[in-house]
Amino acid sequence: MIRFVSAYMHDAGASATAQGLTTAQAQLLIQLDEPLPMRVIADRLFCDASNVTGLVDRLETRGLVVRAPDPGDRRVKLVSLTPAGLALCERIRSDQHGLFAALAVLDEDGAAALKGLLGRMTPAIEDARAGGRQESRRGLGSEPVSSPGCSNLGA
């Protein structure tokens, strides 16, 4: 599974680079399904809010995002995609050829099984992260999963 995630991250990074973005900039854009506070973006990207400010500054300069005050709390800035930012997100996603190739090897039953497995696994990851727990580090077999040098997979 770690090998798949690594390949996916490489594919996503190549797609971002092809669009003239850093991986961090692309990750920020893809988070914006809806306007989000800068603090939420920082949490999702596992970085300090000051890093998000720099990323948003550069994306705003390119016309890909806008900042606006939160109507509920004017001290909070909401970041949202511009039409150009939305179009770029769609190009990034469509340019992930490796992901499409990986999904293409699955038949309908395999795709349904993968969707079911990921649907069950994702909440477990989110719950463990939210609770600060580190459950058993076992992979698909009985051997513990090792992850040397993986201090920041999202960067």
From TrEMBL:
InterPro entries: HTH_MarR-typ (IPR000835), MarR/SlyA-like (IPR039422), Tscrpt_reg_MarR-type_CS (IPR023187), WH-like_DNA-bd_sf (IPR036388), WH_DNA-bd_sf (IPR036390). Residues 144-155 have a biased composition (Polar residues). Residues 128-155 are annotated as: Disordered. Gene3D superfamilies: Winged helix-like DNA-binding domain superfamily/Winged helix DNA-binding domain (1.10.10.10). Residues 1-123 form the HTH marR-type domain. Keywords: DNA-binding, Transcription, Transcription regulation. Residues 128-140 have a biased composition (Basic and acidic residues). The keyword Ribosomal protein does not apply. Pfam families: MarR_2. SUPFAM superfamilies: Winged helix' DNA-binding domain (SSF46785). It comes from the Bacteria. This is MarR family transcriptional regulator. It comes from Actinocorallia longicatena.
